[in-house]
Design a protein that fits this description.
Blueprint: E1 8-13, H1 34-46, E2 53-55, H2 66-70, E3 81-83, H3 100-103, E4 111-115, E5 118-122, H4 138-152, H5 167-182, E6 186-190, H6 206-216, E7 219-224, E8 231-235, E9 238-242, E10 254-260, E11 264-271, E12 276-279
Parallel strand pairs: 1-2, 2-3, 5-6, 6-7, 7-9
Antiparallel strand pairs: 1-10, 4-5, 8-9, 10-11, 11-12
Helix pairs in contact: 5-6
Amino acid sequence: MSSAEPLLRFGVVADPQYADADPRPEVDRYYRNSPKKLAEAIETFNGEDLSFVVTLGDLIDRDWESFDRILPVYDALRHESILLPGNHDFYVAPERMGEVHARLGMPAPWHHFLRGGIRFVVIDGNEISLFSTPEGDPRHEEAKRRLEALTAAGAINAKTWNAGISDTQFTWLEQTLVAAKAQGEKVVVMGHYPLFPEHDHNLWDCDRVVDLFERSGNVVAYLDGHYHAGNFGRHGSTWYVNFKGMVDTETENTFAVVEIHADRIEIIGHGREENRTLPL
């Protein structure tokens, strides 16, 4: 196959983080401007040949009603929309926390699908957290224990705005990668939280997951949001791309089109997002 022809192309958005809230210029957040930026991104995506568009979490900043404003913007998208939650998507009333995945139209909190011969895996980094479950829930209590252990160990990502995954989800991820390898499939994993390089916004379980990817050897890329300035690195045979947050800056947009070729990944950045060529 010619390396000039991509196996597939897809769009990426990270952290629109909409809320009907006044801007916070000191942290560069302009919440009310995100629907317009998202609409502009969708207009660009609609002019492209794409398999899907993924939004890597934090559709809203807070409040259940915010979903009613940001989700209809996706109605104009002519491609399949794949949504996954970030920490801010759970900053809603406690009785609504369990409804977030359904509100985003997800088939399950973690799942996988095949496109163009590539296995895409969506993980749920919010599973064990202080914000995705109410006080008294077993997962909430486990999150407290994990955060205490990380804090005691001096981990830089021991932050309340980060989270982790359960042993159940980790085992599922491991088995999914083994099955993909048996089929000869390259894998792209997508989540909200960065894993690498080391950073204070990383998933609590980041080292464990990075080690798994290295052992597996077939994860060509991990894509995420959460850290709005963006980040980038490579460990083993996996590229780690942290996309920039759409909610940042008053007027500048940020989104990307990703092309997967037989021999490389091309990231075509728009606005503040950078262009990258990642050899495989």
